[in-house]
């Protein structure tokens, strides 16, 4: 019966041991004589694939059984059980608690399952228990705390979970406790601090949390403390500096913070110190240089700053120095390897802020590996680099090294890795590089190197990867490239190489990835390509390769990526279809002909099929619908005919569907609306008919929709307004009719809108002026649009091209267009526009405004004076004439009435001559101004302003046109 550790303190556990035995009476009644029977029960619980237990039988002496050790001179007193590493499976039976005389049990490195039996707690003589490297489950039995004589407990590398039982603190003789590589959680029990004899505490690779408990200071005999790969936190406890016998300290990959303890420098016997992958800050303590026995120092992947303050003049035993991924700055110190006594073999300083030259490293004569990548080192690679004669790995990439690669590099006869990419190296590859017979990896990409690829490189027969991407190498690929029999990766992309691909390349039969794209290679593919049986990725795009493909390519069954785009290949696609594992087939802009083979659909994992810009004919194979993982299908600019096969509706992951530039017919299928991943749909330049399906509005992620140059009819469905991510909408050159839907306003990410050469009618929706990202063009030309140009178009402040030509637009050009400061093309020609061209648009050519007979002003001829106002429509003229007649009649009646009244009363008026004269002129002191029913006193400021206002608006205001005569009359009265 297992006792729950959370409910019973250790003393209670001890007191209940008697009850434990009573409950397990069969086990507790065991004697030394029962050992054979107990072991036979163990045998029956195990599966023995190697038959190591076949000799376990009652007829044989138990002490002769395989894996059994007995006490010397005694009969049937079993002291040892060792069945390690025999592939045993099954469970450990509770009966194992009957081996009361056993001192050592080793069942490690098998495939045992089930829990650890709590009955092991009865084996009071047990000193060693090894159950590591199995598949045991459950929790660690707290009953193991009863093993007072236990010295070694190693049960790690299992599937144990739960917390570490504090009861283990009662195993006071324990020297080794190994619980690594399990799924233990919780904190490290403080009770472990009672283990004063403990020499090794290994708790790596669990999910332990919390701090290292202060009570652990009681483990004064510790030689190994390893708690790596947990979630421990807090500062590194200072008591660690008091473990005078400590030889190995591994706190890697936790969440420790604070600085590195200076007290660690007191651990004179320390040989291994690993603090990588924490959040440690501050500088490297000078005291670490006191660790004269230290062989491995790893402080990488922290936030340590300051200078590199390590000196192997004191750390004479140091072989590994790993400080990568910190914030160190400054230069490499001159005394890093002072004298010839340095043992430093491996130096890793990548991912810091170090700078200056690397000359100081030449003093480290024992170095085998150097990695100073991802820093800010400058200067040339030292020509005396060959002083490091034992160098195996040299990684200087991602720095700012300049100059050329010194020929002395060829003296590093042990070099296996040379990584110099992403620097500023220039010059040629020295031919001396051909002496590096052990070289496996050569990375020179993203430099400024030039010259030819030396033929001597083909002497480096151990090469496995060559990457020269992004340099300026010219000339041909070495003819003897086939000497590199071990070559798996050849990357020569983006250089200036020319000539043919050597036939000897077919001898590189280990080749898996070949990238020769972005060069000037020419000629045909050699037939020997078919020998590259391991080839998986081949990219030859952007060259001048030509001719039909060799039929031998069909033998390449492992191809996953083919990109031959932008060459001059011709003939059939069939040689490329021997593999059923293709993920990418990109052949755009060649001269392939024939039909698209249905065999393309054999590669069910294909994600990109790009055949655009060829001479392919026939129908789109319905079998392409089987490519359900396809994200890009580009068949554009071929001679394909027929309908879009309905089977393509199964390609629900399509993001790009390009069928433009063919001779496809039929209607645009409504099932396109089911392709919810679609980001680009281009069916332009075909012969599609019928309506635009409203279901396209369901493709909510659509960025580009182009249906131009077809024979589509009907109206633009307002559902397109649901495409709120749309950037490009091109419906040019169709037979669309009806109004432009105002719902396009919802496509507020549009930066290109083309609706020209249709039969659209009605006004331009003012909502189009609220498309804030419209930039490339707004083209509504060659339609039947009418009404005025909306002033709201002035809100398209990013617009570069506006074409409203060849419509029936009338009214004036709105001054708001002056806000379009990014506009560099404007075409309003061929409309019914009138009035003056706004002055701010005069910089556009006259062709932008031609065909509007009533437009005037630069760049068109000057406008006539204000009296030559624009001609009004007939209905407006009729209203004006009727108005003038009514007003004139009213004026005449008023004048007649006034004259009659004056005539009837003039005799009754008795005034002096001066009064009469004043009265005679008084009638002339009042005059109608602007004809709007308001009157101003002639000569007053008000009447002068009114007259001026009438002149100012006479050319553009209908009111001023209506009353031009009245205003002139008022102005004349003012002058008199």
From TrEMBL:
What Pfam families does this protein's entry cite?
LRR_1, LRR_14, LRR_8, LRRNT_2
Coarse class of the protein's main subcellular location:
membrane
- SUPFAM superfamilies reported in the protein's UniProt record: L domain-like, RNI-like
Kindly give the membrane topology term recorded for this protein: Single-pass membrane protein
Q: Keyword annotations for this protein?
A: Cell membrane, Leucine-rich repeat, Membrane, Repeat, Signal, Transmembrane, Transmembrane helix
Q: Where does the sequence pass through the membrane?
A: 877-897
- Leucine-rich repeat-containing N-terminal plant-type domain spans which residues? 37-70
Q: Which domain of life is it from?
A: Eukaryota
Annotated SMART domains: LRR_TYP (SM00369)
Q: Which GO terms describe its cellular component?
A: plasma membrane
Region of interest (Disordered), residue spans:
947-976
UniProt domain Disease resistance R13L4/SHOC-2-like LRR: residue ranges: 359-492
Span of the secretion signal?
Answer: 1-30
**Localization, UniProt:** Cell membrane; Membrane
The question of whether Membrane is a record keyword is answered with yes
PANTHER family from the UniProt entry: OS01G0149700 PROTEIN, OS01G0162200 PROTEIN
The protein depicted here goes by the name Leucine-rich repeat-containing N-terminal plant-type domain-containing protein
